[in-house]
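Model it.
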Amino acid sequence: MQANELIQQFCDKTGIAYVENVGGSLSVDCDGLTVSIRSLDEGRRIAVSGEVFYTAPGDDCEALYRAMFEAQHLYSGTVGAVFSINPDTGALTLFRIIDCETLEIDAFLEMLGQFITVLELWSKVVAKYDPASHTDDGLRPIPFHGFGGAIPV
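Modeled.
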């Protein structure tokens, strides 16, 4: 199925009006998180993205970054999505590319639901992260009990 068909079916199933924003993507509010859905490669793939946090985490975030990288390893805690920093806005972003040529709407809805769950989880983790709580003497990082593997794949 083509990306635009999947996006249209998603809108029809959820009752969301299909209105592309200026960047050519559909933005959907999911419990306070904005998820953008865009067709790529002449409709062969869909890009799904959302801001984890309005800015990149600051200094002394080694434990947080480690947890994010561990979660991203083999996608065990990101269900196929990757973290990035948006060069235009500086926002910490979660991003996933979905091949859709053989994808049906129910599988797409499941993937989108998983993405939203991961986005919500990491948004909470980053918002609540306190670097001071992850060092005991200011020299040695205490392991961040992150969420790698917390999301079933």
